[in-house]
C-alpha cells in the first residue's frame, strides 16, 4: 500500500464534505431548522417569505398547484383534504378546506389547457353539463360536511344554514336533515328539530340515527312542556295568593304601601298561614326600633293575634342596656301613622287590632314599632315632631 493510500486510510481521517454540507455544518441548529421550515416538505409552520421579507417561491409554487384545473377539480381537491381532517376530528382545519372548496366553485372557471401550447397539445373542450353536475355534487358534499364541522364546534346556527344550503342543492340529503335536527335540538328549537326528523325519516324510514334523534326530541319536548306547565301553575298560584292576601288586608282595614326601594327581608314576608284562605291568621315581619339608643330587633313572624308585650318579655333584657332602662313595664311603644304622626301601641293589644285602626301603615311588607323608655318618651316625641315638621 502506498504512503498516500495509507494516509487516506489512517484512523480518524475523513473525506472532505461537499461545499453545501460544509456551509450547513457551520450554521447553528436554530438556523438550519429555520432554513428547513422554508421548504414545503419540512414545514412545521407557514413561512410566507424567503426569510428576509422576499417571496418564498417554493411555497408559492406549491400553493399554485392547489388551484390547477377546473373549478370542480380544484374544489374536489380541497374537499378531499377537508375529509381527511374531518376523519382526524380536526374540525377547524376541515371547515377551512370546505370553505376553500366552496369559494373555488363560486370563482371563475379555469380552462384546463390555458397554459399549454405547441403542436402536441390536444385541446380539451369542457362538457359544461358534466362540469355543472360535478360542481353541484361537490358543493352539496362540502356544505353538508361543513355542517358537521359547525355542529362539532357547537356553531349551531351556522350548521343549520349549511344544512339549508345542502337541501337547496339536494332535497333528498338525509344527512342534512339529521344534522339540522341535531343543531335545532341543541338550540331548543323543538318544532324545527321534530320537522327535520320527520322529513328525514320520510326519505329513509329505517335510519337509526334519525330514529334516535326523534326520541331525544320527544323527550326534550315533554320535559319543556312539563316545565312550562309547572311555571304556569306557579304563576297562577302566586297570583291567587296575592289576591287572597290583598282581600285579607282589606277586610281587616290594614293599610299597606310599597316603595321603590324595599328592604331585604330575606325569607321573612307578610303572609297568611293558609295562603288561599283570607280568614286564616296573618303573620307580619316586624322591626322593633330603640331610637334613643340606635338599636333594633327583628321578628320574622309576628302573628296578628299576638301582643307586643308577649314579644318584649322574651326579648328583654337587652344585652346593650347597661342601665336596665328597658323592661316591659318601663317602656312605651309607638307606630307612625300614614299622615306622619304617631299613635301609642298598647302592649296588651294584639297587633291585628292596632293595625286594624287604619292609622299605621305596613310599608313594603314590614311593620315598624318604636320602643322608648317612659322617662325619655316625651323628649323623643318632641324631637320626632320637629323632625317631621309637626306643630
TrEMBL record:
Gene Ontology MF, one? Hsp70 protein binding
Describe the location of the Cns1/TTC4 wheel domain by residue ranges.
276-384
| Keyword match Nucleotidyltransferase | no
The keyword Kinase is annotated on this UniProt entry: no
Q: Which InterPro entries match?
A: Csn1/TTC4_wheel, TPR-like_helical_dom_sf, TPR_rpt
The similarity comment for this entry is:
Belongs to the TTC4 family.
Query: What is this protein's record name?
Result: TPR repeat protein-like protein
Amino acid at each position: 500500500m502506498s504512503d498516500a493510500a495509507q494516509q487516506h486510510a489512517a484512523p480518524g481521517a475523513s473525506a472532505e464534505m461537499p461545499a453545501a454540507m460544509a456551509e450547513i455544518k457551520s450554521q447553528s441548529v436554530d438556523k438550519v431548522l429555520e432554513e428547513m421550515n422554508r421548504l414545503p416538505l419540512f414545514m412545521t409552520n407557514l413561512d410566507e417569505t424567503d426569510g428576509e421579507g422576499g417571496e418564498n417561491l417554493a411555497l408559492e409554487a406549491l400553493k399554485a398547484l392547489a388551484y390547477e384545473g377546473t373549478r370542480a377539480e380544484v374544489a374536489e381537491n380541497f374537499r378531499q383534504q377537508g375529509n381527511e381532517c374531518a376523519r382526524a376530528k380536526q374540525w377547524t382545519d376541515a371547515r377551512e378546506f370546505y370553505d376553500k372548496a366552496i369559494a373555488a366553485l363560486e370563482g371563475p372557471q379555469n380552462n384546463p389547457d390555458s397554459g399549454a401550447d405547441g403542436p402536441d397539445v390536444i385541446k380539451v373542450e369542457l362538457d359544461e353539463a358534466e362540469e355543472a353536475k360535478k360542481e353541484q355534487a361537490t358543493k352539496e358534499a362540502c356544505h353538508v360536511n361543513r355542517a358537521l364541522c359547525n355542529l362539532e364546534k357547537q356553531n349551531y346556527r351556522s350548521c343549520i344554514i349549511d344544512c339549508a344550503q345542502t337541501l337547496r342543492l339536494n332535497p333528498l340529503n338525509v344527512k342534512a336533515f339529521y344534522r339540522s335536527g341535531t343543531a335545532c335540538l341543541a338550540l331548543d328549537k323543538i318544532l324545527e328539530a321534530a320537522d327535520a326528523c320527520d322529513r328525514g325519516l320520510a326519505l329513509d324510514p329505517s335510519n337509526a340515527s334519525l330514529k334516535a334523534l326523534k326520541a331525544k326530541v320527544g323527550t326534550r319536548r315533554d320535559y319543556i312542556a312539563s316545565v312550562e306547565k309547572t311555571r304556569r301553575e306557579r304563576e297562577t298560584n302566586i297570583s291567587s295568593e296575592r289576591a287572597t292576601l290583598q282581600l285579607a288586608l282589606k277586610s281587616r282595614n290594614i293599610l299597606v304601601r310599597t316603595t321603590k326601594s324595599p328592604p331585604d327581608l330575606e325569607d321573612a314576608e307578610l303572609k297568611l298561614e293558609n295562603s288561599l284562605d283570607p280568614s286564616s291568621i296573618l303573620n307580619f315581619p316586624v322591626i322593633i326600633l330603640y331610637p334613643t339608643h340606635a338599636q333594633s330587633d327583628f321578628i320574622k313572624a309576628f302573628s296578628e293575634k299576638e301582643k307586643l308585650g308577649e314579644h318584649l318579655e322574651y326579648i328583654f333584657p337587652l344585652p346593650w342596656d347597661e342601665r336596665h332602662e328597658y323592661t316591659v313595664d318601663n317602656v312605651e311603644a309607638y307606630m307612625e301613622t300614614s299622615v306622619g304622626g304617631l299613635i301609642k301601641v298598647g302592649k296588651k293589644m294584639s297587633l291585628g287590632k292596632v293595625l286594624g285602626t287604619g292609622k299605621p301603615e305596613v310599608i313594603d311588607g314590614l311593620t315598624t314599632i318604636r320602643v322608648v323608655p317612659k322617662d325619655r318618651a316625651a323628649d323623643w316625641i318632641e324631637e320626632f315632631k320637629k323632625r317631621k315638621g309637626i306643630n
